Amino acid sequence: MDAFQFLRIKDIIRETPQAVSLVFEVPSVLKDNYKFKAGQYLTFKMMLNGEEIRRSYSLCSTPKSGELKVTVKEVEDGTFSTYANNKLKVGDSLEVHTPEGKFIYEPNNTSQHNYAAFAAGSGITPILSILKTALEEEPTSKFVLVYGNRTPQETIFYKELLELQANYASRLFIEFVYSQSQEDASHFGRIEKSTVNFIVKNRYKDYTFKDVFLCGPEKMIENVTDVLKENNISEENIHFELFTSNTEGSIEADLEGNTEVVVMLDDEETTFTMKKSESILDAVLNQDLDPPYSCQGGICSSCIARLTEGKAEMRKNQILTDDEVAEGLILTCQAHPTTPKVVVDFDEV
């Protein structure tokens, strides 16, 4: 089955003046294909202004809800986000890839743990799925959410979060942070070192957090991660999802010359020659092949493939673990071949 299928939009919910949630109708024959884990995302493919674009958005619904729902925040000059917020209508259809992503949470209903999450802006979308799943499926676990925005009016899911807090008063604790509005029982400013220290050293000092989930701007994720590690939270228990990245990355290897590339994709083998200065993904796309991809910026995991022969170096890698890299996995949008021949397998991932 093609990983992209046309799905009908059955509801559009205006969350804030700048954000809408899209709820998709999934035919019964496709239900199994669109099952997902809390924290995963969907990729959309469409033609806009004569150009194919692909964009990924995190699922904010829970796996057991029966809903396939994402939230799209409109950003300045954002091609798809502007279209989604202003043009899409109930009844329209979009090409939707089956769920993907490595930023996941899998509950265990016999477990009793403490979890924490730090989110900013639209970074709340996968966090909401994780948070609700934990509350619903681990009935004795607790969850602390630190959520930063400019104002309450711009806070996605504000009303829903307050309702959840009321319904799970002994298990869900929310710390709202506003950078442009001073509100009672909230923090003023941004999520920074003092905020994290207040959470782990003061207000929740008696909590041992099994896992901490981060989603928001790259700088916030880096700062929060550093402070959590300073407070003896292991890096393996800190999980993050990037929506944008300011890191360009770099290559130490010599990228002069060409490489022979053998690509395994959809059970077909294609051989061609590419410049080492190109990314493997760009070279594959230039062959009119259709590999999986979305962001092309090294912040999603759609374009992962396995290098089965030869070597490649990635400009940046904020997703794959050292063990996964050792197993031959690469982000093809960031990988440049460094040997005379490489074999890249998109099927065996």
TrEMBL record:
Residue ranges annotated for the FAD-binding FR-type domain, each copy included: 2-106
SUPFAM superfamilies: 2Fe-2S ferredoxin-like, Ferredoxin reductase-like, C-terminal NADP-linked domain, Riboflavin synthase domain-like
Residue ranges annotated for the 2Fe-2S ferredoxin-type domain, each copy included: 259-349
GO MF term list: 2 iron, 2 sulfur cluster binding; flavin adenine dinucleotide binding; metal ion binding; oxidoreductase activity
UniProt KW keywords: 2Fe-2S, FAD, Flavoprotein, Iron, Iron-sulfur, Metal-binding, Oxidoreductase
Cofactor(s) demanded: FAD
InterPro entries for the chain: 2Fe-2S_ferredoxin-like_sf, 2Fe-2S_ferredoxin-type, 2Fe2S_fd_BS, Beta-grasp_dom_sf, Cbr1-like_FAD-bd_dom, FAD-bd_FR_type, FNR_nucleotide-bd, MRET
PANTHER family xref list: 1,2-PHENYLACETYL-COA EPOXIDASE, SUBUNIT E, NADH OXIDOREDUCTASE HCR
Record protein name field: Phenylacetate-CoA oxygenase/reductase, PaaK subunit
Biological classification of the source: Bacteria, Pseudomonadati, Bacteroidota, Flavobacteriia, Flavobacteriales
